[in-house]
Amino acid sequence: MQRLFKISVNGKEYDVAVQELTSGAAIMPNYIGTPTPASAASVAAVPQAAPAPAAAPVAAGSGDQCAQMGGVVASILVKEGQEVSQGERIAELEAMKMKVPITASMAGKVSRVLVAVGDAVVAGQPLITLS
After folding, report:
1. What is the pLDDT of residue 41?
2. Where do the structural domains in the chain lie, given as residue ranges?
3. Residue 102: which of 85, 130, 77 has the closest Cα?
């Protein structure tokens, strides 16, 4: 099905016709000529490829300290084998130029550090494991 649109580019108006493609239609653009103001150019819409699915974070265990939001690991303040208290800052995430502290939800010993400074993380992703 063809649809007509009026667009403005750098102050010049163009009339364009866009052809909607279905699953059985050709997906190559059908470009005819150079668009000129107030003239129609026939251009077929090319569907964008679906983005590759992001790797799903590993399910969190009882001692896992997880990211509250997506961001980048700005700092890790503990080392494996270190004892921590409940509420102690153990890492810091950065998102949109804001640093968000990650605090221990329980007292325990750091058994694993699962990320490194600079790693991108998603909300709910385990960062540090306490035992």
Report:
1. 45
2. 2-44, 64-130
3. 77
Q: Quick: pLDDT tens for 36-63.
A: 555 444 444 545 555 555 554 555 567 8
Is residue 34 within 8 A of residue 41, CB to CB? The reply is: yes
CATH class, 64-130 region: mainly beta
Residue of 103, 114, 102 lying closest to 61 (CA atoms): 114
Residue 17 makes CB contacts below 8 A (sequence gap 6+) with 2, 3, 4, 5, 40, 41, 42, 43
Of the candidates 131, 125, 72, the residue with the CA atom closest to the CA atom of residue 104 = 131
pTM > 0.70: yes or no: no
